[in-house]
């Protein structure tokens, strides 16, 4: 190890040090793996968090390390070639970090301000829920359904993203509530019946977290 | 009409792909291929193992839902490995005639293999119906005038 470090250029070493400080880690769940039963099974939560999300974190770190090396060498071609891996794994890390907070065994109700915005932009909470559910179920392949805030227009909007494309970087909307519809998010429990999963997930929506995100984004 | 095109591609592609998939597998399948497609594989990839490695890496590497394919390129009269997202049909997407497909949508393996897509891809080689792949290869070559 020491010999390798001596061989590294000063710039390369500096870049490597920067990357080491910024290594991403898997965030803890705010609850136990079984906390969202019977809506989302323990088995799914364990695999989803400790395997799938962990893999995005690991691969994001690898991609960022390669990015730092390429950047230090001035290798623009490699920098560009890393974009898909950064988007996929970075998006996966961002999305799932939000997701675990977006869910709760006792998520309460929307705040007064959020409820007012929902009523204004969708007519009612039920309308918003059915629109987001429909859009999310209709995602072709892997992806996410989102309730987001359009800051420029000051309105709530529904959007979907394919794969792990992160909402804000892709659409400019601030993510408030996301529903993961990659099959790994529901298949063990709901099999092919995605609509049942999407309808059920509202029972564990963490309105306290969603309201807090809305408040922060509305400043 | 325009609004229907994505649904036609998605569901039409899904129907095409799965119809091919069921014929690509057999209970007594697997092993090393023989016949014309084996020759084509050796010519293009150097060896069956090299093809296996390439096909496996491509299939495991699909980001999200999609398929790994061995296809036939009519212009070059050769075989190639390619991947498609979601249910995008191979011929429409890459201009290759589908010979052998591997579904890597999570529904294809998750109940059994969970997140371990690589294990599923490895096991797939035990059920490949090489007679069917050969039949598709020969038909594709004929259709291309070879």
TrEMBL record, chain A:
Q: Which UniProt keywords apply?
A: Manganese, Metal-binding, Mitochondrion, Oxidoreductase, Signal
Q: Catalyses which reaction?
A: 2 superoxide + 2 H(+) = H2O2 + O2
Q: Which residues cross the membrane?
A: none
SUPFAM superfamilies, per the entry? Fe,Mn superoxide dismutase (SOD), C-terminal domain, Fe,Mn superoxide dismutase (SOD), N-terminal domain
Q: Where is the signal peptide?
A: 1-16
Q: Which cofactor does it need?
A: Mn(2+)
Enzyme class, first EC level, given as a word? oxidoreductase
InterPro entries named among the record's database cross-references: Fe/Mn_Superoxide_Dismutase, Mn/Fe_SOD, Mn/Fe_SOD_BS, Mn/Fe_SOD_C, Mn/Fe_SOD_N, Mn/Fe_SOD_N_sf, SOD_C_sf
Listed EC numbers: 1.15.1.1
Report the protein's function: Destroys radicals which are normally produced within the cells and which are toxic to biological systems. Destroys superoxide anion radicals which are normally produced within the cells and which are toxic to biological systems.
Give the protein family: Belongs to the iron/manganese superoxide dismutase family.
Q: What is this protein called?
A: Superoxide dismutase
Species: Halocaridina rubra (Hawaiian red shrimp)
The root-end lineage is: Eukaryota, Metazoa, Ecdysozoa, Arthropoda, Crustacea
- Gene name in the database record: SOD2_4
Automatic annotation (TrEMBL), chain B:
Manganese/iron superoxide dismutase C-terminal domain: which residues? 33-136
The UniProt keywords, alphabetically, are: Metal-binding, Oxidoreductase
Q: What is its EC number?
A: 1.15.1.1
Q: Which cofactor does it need?
A: Mn(2+)
Does Oxidoreductase count among this protein's keywords? yes
Pfam families in the record: Sod_Fe_C (PF02777)
| Subunit description | Homotetramer.
- Indicate the family of this protein: Belongs to the iron/manganese superoxide dismutase family.
UniProt xrefs under PROSITE patterns: SOD_MN
Protein name stated in the entry:
superoxide dismutase
């Amino acid at each position: 190890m020491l010999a390798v470090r001596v061989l590294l250029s000063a710039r390369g070493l500096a870049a490597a040090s920067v990357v080491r400080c910024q290594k991403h880690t898997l965030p803890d769940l705010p609850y136990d793996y079984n906390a969202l039963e019977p809506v989302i099974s323990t088995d799914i939560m364990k695999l989803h968090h400790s395997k799938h999300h962990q893999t995005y974190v690991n691969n994001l770190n690898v991609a960022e390390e390669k990015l730092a090396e390429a950047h230090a060498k001035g290798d623009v071609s490699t920098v560009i070639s890393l974009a898909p891996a950064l988007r996929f794994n970075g998006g996966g890390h961002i999305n799932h970090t939000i997701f675990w907070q977006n869910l709760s065994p006792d998520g309460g109700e929307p705040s007064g301000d959020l409820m007012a915005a929902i009523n204004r932009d969708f007519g009612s909470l039920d309308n918003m829920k059915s629109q987001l559910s429909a859009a999310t179920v209709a995602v072709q392949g892997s992806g996410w359904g989102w309730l987001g805030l359009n800051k420029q227009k000051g309105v709530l909007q529904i959007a979907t993203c394919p794969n792990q494309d992160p909402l804000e970087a892709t659409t400019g909307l601030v993510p408030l509530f996301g529903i993961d519809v990659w099959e790994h998010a529901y298949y063990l429990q709901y099999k092919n019946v995605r609509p049942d999963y999407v309808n059920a997930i509202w029972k564990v929506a963490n309105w306290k977290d969603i309201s807090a995100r809305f408040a922060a984004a509305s400043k | 009409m325009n609004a229907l095109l994505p649904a036609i591609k998605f569901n039409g592609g899904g129907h095409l792909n799965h119809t091919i998939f069921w014929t690509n597998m057999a209970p007594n399948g697997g092993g090393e291929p023989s016949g014309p497609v084996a020759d084509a594989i050796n010519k293009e990839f150097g060896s069956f193992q090299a093809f296996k490695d390439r096909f496996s890496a491509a299939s495991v590497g699909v980001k999200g839902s999609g398929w790994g394919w061995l296809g036939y390129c009519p212009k070059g009269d050769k075989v190639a490995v390619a991947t498609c997202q979601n249910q995008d049909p191979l011929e429409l997407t890459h201009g290759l005639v589908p010979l052998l497909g591997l579904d890597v949508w999570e529904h294809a393996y998750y109940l059994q293999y969970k997140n371990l897509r690589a294990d599923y891809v490895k096991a797939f080689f035990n059920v490949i119906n090489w007679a069917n792949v050969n039949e598709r290869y020969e038909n594709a070559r004929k259709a291309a005038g070879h």
